[in-house]
Amino acid sequence: MGQPAFWLDYPIYHVALKHGGSEQVRYVINGTDGKHPCGVANYYIDNQAASGTWDITKPQPQYWQGCPAGLPGGAGGLYLYPNDTAKLTVGWHTLKIDYLGDSTYAPSQFVAQFLVVP
Fold first, then answer.
1. Residue pLDDT, tens place only, 47-98
2. Are 28 and 39 in contact (CB under 8 A)?
3. What does the alpha-carbon distance between residue 90 and residue 1 come to, in Å, rounded to a whole number?
4. pTM above the 0.70 mark?
5. CA–CA separation, 102 vs 79, rounded Å?
6. Long-range contacts of 88-93 (CB under 8 A, 24+ apart)
């Protein structure tokens, strides 16, 4: 995945989220063929399936080939609501996104650290 995931309100450098706040993460897949496939991904926080809502973007061939190339479109996302982030302890956590791949594109993974603040 190329630049696959980040908290949307401050791209790439934003690694903190507020305990009990709402956040979302989007991912984009950059295929070696220059395309941006859609597809299923699994989300984990500290090696446990992430709570919240998991979203998969549906291809819209009339507008693009596969999924939109850039964020906030991307191939999918994770939406964390106040009750989801309230379950996280204050401190550092690990986010992992596993893109499952398909018959054309190999699976890939993104891992990042983020900080939950009071």
1. 999 999 998 887 776 666 677 666 556 778 889 999 999 999 999 899 998 9
2. no
3. 28
4. yes
5. 24
6. 88/19, 88/45, 88/116, 89/116, 90/19, 90/116, 90/117, 90/118, 91/115, 91/116, 92/116, 93/45, 93/46
